[in-house]
Structures are given as structure tokens and as C-alpha cells.
Design a protein that fits this description.
The complex is a heterodimer of chains A (166) and B (142). Chain A is α+β, with helices and mostly antiparallel strands and 166 residues long. In chain A, 20% of the residues lie in helices and 37% in strands. In chain A, strand 4 and strand 5 form a beta hairpin. Chain B is built from 3 helices and 5 strands. The longest helix of chain B has 16 residues. The chains are: A alpha+beta (166), B alpha+beta (142). At the A-B interface, helix 2, helix 4 and strand 2 of A face helix 1, helix 3 and strand 2 of B.
Amino acid sequence: MAEDRFLTDLIGVTTSVSTVVVERGPVAYFAEAVFDDDPIYRDPEAAREAGFDAIPVPPTFPFVMESWGKLAELQVAVEEQGEGLAPALAVLKARGGLILHGEQSFHYYRPIKVGDVLKGTGVIVDAYAKESKGATMSFLVNEVTWSDAETDEPVLTTRFNVIHRL
Amino acid sequence: MGTTLFIEDVTVGMEAPELRHLLTRTDLVRYAGASGDFNPMHHDEVLATAAGQPSVFGHGMLSMGFLGTAISHFVGAGRLVDFSVRFSRQTWPGEELITRVAVTMVREEDGQHLVDLDVSLSNADGEVKVVGQATASLPTKS
């Protein structure tokens, strides 16, 4: 099929620039929401006994940490923060069809803990379309690279794969 | 939880204890609040049925999160190096969700003792909801 210029032009677009603070309350509540009753996510003493100097976070917490941890006073100017995938998804939605979260991955360089201040930059690293069983499938891959705001050391890379099926 | 898993304790084919959870609408609302994902398909039955869905359905990331719980209880919190999944089916209130975590390889790389895992989440009929892989770095006894 012909190259979809809308998609290929998305590659390299910066989707987000943010700073998040990892706070104790949201971490404990998130553990509850993923049915994890481990005291390590709630009790600093339990975390210390397990060898951590602060409460660690559940494995998929980084996917949501911008929701409650992106404190306004720590952010760059609004026009520099990126608009996420929303503008791209709006164009795809206008074509009809369905948007699905196809895949998700996390690569951890070190445990994330309560008290961390992290900087993240999201970039669309891949965007393409292919025909499958008579349907047009468009794929977008948004990669967010997180580092420690104090030391600049890498902390985490996440990949979010969205599928648009038309 | 509580006990440490050492690399010497792990063998290929070993499986973590499965976790089971009967999914409720309250669980979906709790996850919406904890995650900040207020897509109405996950909490608003009126909108979901109007959109042609049989009912509200679970967030994909709630499924991955529950798998993360099962993996963490097995390898220990903060031990994961990689965790990736593909979402294949929606989850529905009233379904019992069951985790599966199985060891596929034990290896050493750059001085780290790694264990590779195949992971999946299914309902009680065996319908697979989420499938993926994870790698954890484990301590040694020596």
C-alpha cells in the first residue's frame, strides 16, 4: 500500500516533557487497585526490611505516575510540555474505526521509590500502517525515557503501542 | 512476600503461585481513580452499552498491573528489569482472572543473575486476556 505520510511524519515528534514526584499516598492506593496487599508499598519499615531506603512502587505504577505526580510548579512552560498522543489519535479517530492499546513494555534501570523526582520525555519512535485481513491497521509507538531529576541517571523506559483498526 | 527468592532456588519450568481475582465494577472504579484513567468505557455502563459493549470492561493496564502483582510476589519488589505484554482480550466484571508466571530461562549477563518469565492472565475458561514476558535480576546466596 502507499506510504501513509500522516503516520511517517509523526516519527520523532515529542509528545511529552514532564517532571513527576513519586508520593507515598498514590503508591499505596495504586497497590490496592492492582490487588497487591504487600506491606512493602505502604510501610517504610517493611520496605527497609526488604532492603529499600524508601517505599518502592509496583511494576506498572510508572504508567500512571504523571496523573497525580506531575506537580504544576515543576513543569516547563505549557507550550513546551507536548500534547501527548491526543492530536495524532484525533486524526486517526476522524477516519472512523477503533483505537486499541495493543502492547505495553517497561525497561527498568533501577527501582523507583517514594521521594524520587523523575524527568520524562516522550517521543513517537515508530508509526506505520499495514493491511491485515481486509482491515487497515495503523500502529503508533510512544516511548518515554525517564531519568533521575537530580543525577540525570536513567531510571526507566516505557513503550506504549497503540493500534488504530479501520 | 516476606521471603527472598534467590537465583539458586529457581529452575526452568518452575511456576509462581497463581493469583485469582473475581473482577467487579468497584475494582474498575478503584483503578480509574488510582490511575487517573477515566475513559467512561471502564465505569459508565450507560455509555458503554450505548457504544455496543455488553457492559463496562476492565482497563488493559489493570490486567497488566495484576500480572505485575503476581510477578512481584514471586521475584520480590524492585527486581524487574523488563516487563512487556500484548493485550488480546477485554476483561469483564464477573470474570475470575487468573495469573500464570512460569520460568523459561535462568542466565547470567554482565554479572547479573537473570530469570526470564512467560506471563499471562486468563479467565476461568482459559481465555487469554494478556500475554507477555518479564525478566528479573535476583540475588545469590553466596
